[in-house]
Amino acid sequence: MREALFIKQNSERWKGYEQIKAKSPDELAESFISITDDLAYAKTFYPRSNTTKYLNGLASRFHQSIYKNKKEKTSRFVTFWRFELPLLFYKHRKSLLYAFAFFTTFTLMGVLSAKYDSGFVRLILGNDYVNQTNDNIAKGDPFGVYKQADEFTMFAAIAANNIYVELRLFVSGIFFSVGTLYGLLQNGVMLGSFQYYFFSKGLGLQSVLVIWIHGTLEISAIIIAGAAGLILGNSLLFPKTYKRLVALKMGAKDGVKIASGIIPLFLTAAFFEGFVTRHTEMPVWLSITILTCSFVFITWYVVLYPALLNKKLNLNTINNTDETTF
């Protein structure tokens, strides 16, 4: 459709949308959905036109009218994890992929370093941890370190530490992503050397069945936190057509949402580590079930569901556009 025809068919409706204060809450929500559909169409076919700028401003006014100075309700939290966070994952899927690729590379570096340098594991994990674990292996309880404190104390300490690590990964992205990459390097090398240590002791499979009960969610959340840091840093490095300050604000906003949105993952991982991992005698089938459920959830919620949700929204936009055309 030519831009002139698009404007002619919708200009009267847009003028009506300008009277935001006169609308009821239901009408406001319906109008907001409609104007964002028009904006999506305009961005696709007339990305640099005044029409797109006008619709973007109109949509922003609707958004502010709906959310500004409004108390958050329970439904808002549901909407955040059901729609907003998954769509952010899809929007920044490249940053997630880069974070995963970097972390995997750093983990392999840790594995190779531990394999070819006998002192590397002690350098990374510390003499106290290695000596204690060696003693536990000699006693026939290689994962006894997870039984040192009571369940709640371990849960609280681990949760606090993991959230601190997450926030540090995210905030350090302000240094043009270098800080985040360094944090991913630290965590990746530590994981690689840690995992190689148990494989070198002939406890590889057992370590996977025990440690990854909590590690699946914990490591996934660390990678996502790394992606949030890259989003923040890359907004400074690559502002695109925006002014650098504007791009930084946008990157920071999305990064904060992602970083805060994955806190439940860290809490769940800490719960598993504090209350479940210590039961090293649990049946193999139960351990595999927990691992599988965690992996399937992460894959679905971070990769598959966001793609399906985005596809559904695009189809709705196309259908609404087709209706307008006819």
TrEMBL record:
Keyword annotations of the record: Membrane, Transmembrane, Transmembrane helix
InterPro entries: SpoIIM-like
Signal peptide span: none
Top-level taxon of origin: Bacteria
Protein name (Swiss-Prot/TrEMBL): Stage II sporulation protein M
Coiled coil: none
Lineage: Bacteria, Pseudomonadati, Bacteroidota, Sphingobacteriia, Sphingobacteriales
Nucleus in keyword set: no
Positions of transmembrane segments: 96-116, 163-184, 196-213, 219-238, 258-276, 282-304
